[in-house]
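Our preliminary data section would be incomplete without showing what the modeling component actually yields. Below, a chain of 167 amino acids is followed by its predicted structure, encoded as tokens that our downstream tools consume directly.
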Amino acid sequence: MARKTKSADRLSAPMPPGAGEGTQPAAATSEPAASEGAAAARVPDPQAMAEGARRLRKAWTKADEAARGQFLTWLSKKGHLPEAASAPPIASGRYLLPATVERIALKMTQEKLSPAALARHLGFSTEGPALERALRHGAALRLALVAALSAWLVQPAQGEADPTEHA
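Predicted structure:
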């Protein structure tokens, strides 16, 4: 039986990160040595990115809906968000935000709609009681109904002129 030597163990053991760098001549590497430093300078530090993301999440949770909307508007003007994301959110998952409930109630009053009539108008004839519970008690809604409410809220109220149309 062959006996293992210490030198054989060193050859088979994996090298730690950074070990052996700089041992090859510059001509043998795929990139010149000068560009390696420039490439490393362009890569952001993952820990710094994580800290920045943590701070952004913390500020987002502390901000009210108006501040969040202003931030999203600013991001969309800078070109960092697609056009669909420029409108402020109306719900957090399946739950309507308090400001959204107020907007829906105001528009329902303007159009003289009950929650059941609004659900029928949106194509969800059996969701009237669920919409009423969501508006009064903050209950959850189907995501399809949340999406339909989002589209309905951006439409002008009946009898109102569309501000985008030119007469």
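Residues 91-154 form one domain. DSSP finds eight helices and two strands in the chain. Preliminary results of this kind motivate Aim 1 of the renewal.
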